[in-house]
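Listing S7. Sequence submitted for prediction.
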Amino acid sequence: MDQELRELYQQVILDHNKSPRNFRKIDKHTNFAEGFNPLCGDNVDIYLILDEDKIIDISFQGSGCAISKASASLMTSILKGKTVEEAEKIFNKFHLLVTDKLGDNPDIEDLGKLAVFAGVREFPARVKCASLAWHTMINALHNKNEKVVTE
């Protein structure tokens, strides 16, 4: 990862950790899921309002490291207004990005600000921090009641 991307990575992570977007509980949510990363203690609750196949609103609550909170913040900002299918496609590409399965020169422009998480792949222990909210969101989309646990 080049120096410019490293600096952007740090700035975006710090900004979304300090001032997370959509950090609240949606009282009248239609879908909900909770996630936990026992390795570092991150926990996240994802709240959704789905109308047919569209994410009308999405939010999160929880506690964790800067990467975990920033990932949840960016995720909720990007997925609001998307369809379930679009959310699943973004999840899949994000997951490939952070697990280093896109190759050496990945085409990540369509991920927008999520591209800053390309740096996470250099720190395998942090992949679970970055992906916890995403796996939890997938459970929320499909109203799966089991808690997401990254181990």
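Caption to Listing S7: primary sequence and predicted structure tokens for the chain studied. Residues 3-149 form a domain with the Sufe protein. Chain: A fold (CATH 3.90.1010.10). The radius of gyration is 14 Å.
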